Amino acid sequence: MVIDVPDRLAGAPGEDSLARTALVHRAANLLRPSGALRRLDEVAAWLGAWQRTDTPDVESPGLLVAAADHGVAEHGVSALRPDFTIAAVDAMRAGAATSTVLAANLGASMRLVDVGAGRPTEDISGADAMSVDRFESAFGEGRVAAATMGTDLLLVGDIGVGSTTAAAAVSYAVFGGEAPEWVGLGSGIDGDQQRRKTEVVAAAVARVAATSPLEALRRLGGPEMAAIAGAVYEARLRSIPVLLDGFVTTAAAAVLEALTPGALDHTTASHVSTEPGHRRLLEILSKPPLLDLGFRFGEGSGALVALPIVRAAAVAVSDVATVDEWGLR
Fold this sequence. Notes:
The chain is of the alpha/beta class. It is built from 14 helices and 5 strands.
């Protein structure tokens, strides 16, 4: 049940501090100046702490992509055609989408969780995005996927027309500020569309007023965001490290952090997109991104591009000799 999420997060095991300490110590004594690969060493320590080993590795990375459409798209808040999500899902199943091509090249498995392609949510400016049943069903599908993928590093991505509008609304409702701070150009809209998008986000958040983080996700988000939140939640219970993708996945996961501080300690931000709300959210979560390449897509593309960095971080600590092992001390 979704209702027990805060209690289970509060009781979830933390990282393996002994593994982290061992990796920090090893990194400080490798055959290179201490701190010379600082960010990589930090990533290796994070990875080992959640894999619960002092020899971290990424042998079985898995990408979960959740797909759904948003009723709010009828306001013209996206540059994409209404049937884009279905086309993207079909391309994923055929192995012709950006995510599937990258995943195959990088040796990552992939799981598509279709919780609403072609079945849009309600328009959040005037109604709750999802019923309780639909929200809980999507959250549960994300949990099941994360539990059964057999991965040692989970990557999460999304696809859906109107998704950055939903992400902006959820972030605004949960973390405050002003609507324009959360609203960007999404798929490439123009200035008039951005103003309309901002108005829609402001109206949607005003409609729900003060609400809990999970209710904000149900009433303002989308099924794909619920599935991602469920996957990230399940990964935390199972101590599976997670690479977050862009604004939508981060907004979905951030709801868990708002519920229970520290809930996202097992996650790392793969990149920061061009969405101003994404950068703002990463700052709030204190999660510096591994990459800043001007991405504005989704499908887990940013997480996939960052995957080799995480792999490099692991081997650059685990496999490089220390000064003691090389007889220099």
